[in-house]
């Protein structure tokens, strides 16, 4: 694990990269990284996240700045700007049922070939997907999701990169940290190794590539 400034962390992200961004309506989203992506004027990014928050918050800032090419999310209903760009064919939006989304991410992180779910059978969600029968019941095969970068918000990080999350900020972050080629973490508090009890470590240090230093 290496400590970097937020500027250098974002500078590693090329235009056209795919990003997993933690958070639920911006709770658990690394706002400092989002702000720096906008400042550096990245372009054509694909974001995999639960939602696009709302204008002025979390991923909503990326939508407003028009740095995104595609969004894979479970809902966009509280961000009218996302809806506007989607309707104008300026932003590609793939809507995925929330449980299916997190399981696809988990499958990507744990090396699975996909998941089987009954969610979406008989609806537009089924279009273009393989149906598999198991013990007389039909399931859809949903393929894994991975990304070039996972942008993670933690409550505590130690000097090695072990992470702990607080309350509802522990949403998509731990699972996304497993499903990306490069993991960049913004932590509210960075503490000496040993301060975080082993029982409270939710993302182990070997998973983390970069920790944004509190400068």
Q: What does this protein structure show overall?
A:
The chain is an alpha/beta fold. It has six helices and twelve strands. The chain has helices spanning 6-11, 31-39, 60-64, 80-87, 98-109, 173-176; strands spanning 2-4, 18-21, 45-48, 68-73, 92-95, 115-117, 131-134, 137-142, 147-158, 163-164, 180-191, 210-212. Strands 1, 2, 3, 4, 5, 9, 10, 11 and 12 form a nine-stranded mixed β-sheet that branches. The chain has a three-stranded antiparallel β-sheet with strand order 6-8-7. The chain is globular. It starts with a strand and ends with a strand. The mean pLDDT is 96.
Features:
single chain; 215 residues; alpha/beta; nine-stranded mixed beta sheet; three-stranded antiparallel beta sheet; 20% helix; 29% strand; globular
Q: Strand fraction band? A: 25-35%
What is the averaged pLDDT score? 96
Alpha plus pi helix count: 6
Secondary-structure content class = alpha/beta
Uncertain segments are: none
Cα radius of gyration in angstroms = 17 Å
Q: What kind of oligomer do you see? A: single chain
Indicate the overall shape: globular
Question: Could you state the order of secondary-structure elements as H and E?
Answer: EHEHEHEHEHEEEEEHEE
Write a concise synopsis of the structure shown.
With 215 residues, the protein is of the alpha/beta class. The protein is built from 6 helices and 12 strands.
Helix-strand blueprint:
Layout: E1 2-4, H1 6-11, E2 18-21, H2 31-39, E3 45-48, H3 60-64, E4 68-73, H4 80-87, E5 92-95, H5 98-109, E6 115-117, E7 131-134, E8 137-142, E9 147-158, E10 163-164, H6 173-176, E11 180-191, E12 210-212
Parallel strand pairs: 1-12, 2-3, 2-9, 3-4, 4-5, 9-11, 11-12
Antiparallel strand pairs: 6-8, 7-8, 9-10
